[in-house]
Amino acid sequence: QQKVQQSPESLIVPEGGMASLNCTSSDRNVDYFWWYRQHSGKSPKMLMSIFSNGEKEEGRFTVHLNKASLHTSLHIRDSQPSDSALYLCAAAIYGSSGNKLIFGIGTLLSVKP
Amino acid sequence: GPKVLQIPSHQIIDMGQMVTLNCDPVSNHLYFYWYKQILGQQMEFLVNFYNGKVMEKSKLFKDQFSVERPDGSYFTLKIQPTALEDSAVYFCASSSTISGNTLYFGEGSRLIVV
Known about the structure:
The structure holds two protein chains of two kinds. Chain A is 0% helix and 61% strand. Chain A has no helices and eleven strands. In chain A, β9 (85-95) and β10 (98-103) form a beta hairpin. Chain B is mainly β. Chains A and B meet through β5, β9 and β10 of A and β4, β5 and β10 of B.
């Protein structure tokens, strides 16, 4: 079973619409959640991170975290065609063997003009 | 922003040959990572490295894989010998500290084993 599960697998939203992406971890040792964006053929670029319960907003992007359920969500308002990409959720687990990110399979977002 | 450089960007290699993928991490970063991404599939953790040592490796980090960073030069991933299933994009990443800090990824090295 995947340790980090993302839904939906793919999402189409109209330009100007709201995109909502979900992510849940099955590992209770998670310290942080990270959201990365990966455009086709490119490297993942960090969007936002969250480690405490509640909400964090940066521009058009808002991240929620419920630590009890280990569920995080990313919301993109006023979506733009340039937001079309693969959105990766990653759970960060810190331990004596170092830091590693465990990625979900991603949500492929398409924003249609 | 901070840049991680990877060389080569693409390589085609015959099965059984050796390949070395090079990574120039962000200056002053101390933690280094390799991830593997097969086209259309998940980004998977291979290994992390700190202070000259492997800290943790996954089941994907086969015996044919090795990493090193001699004398602060490139952080390398060597595969010897290569197999067809090693075809993937290999991403290098680095971070400044162990906790709560962003991993910065390079643009990837696309390896095709034929």
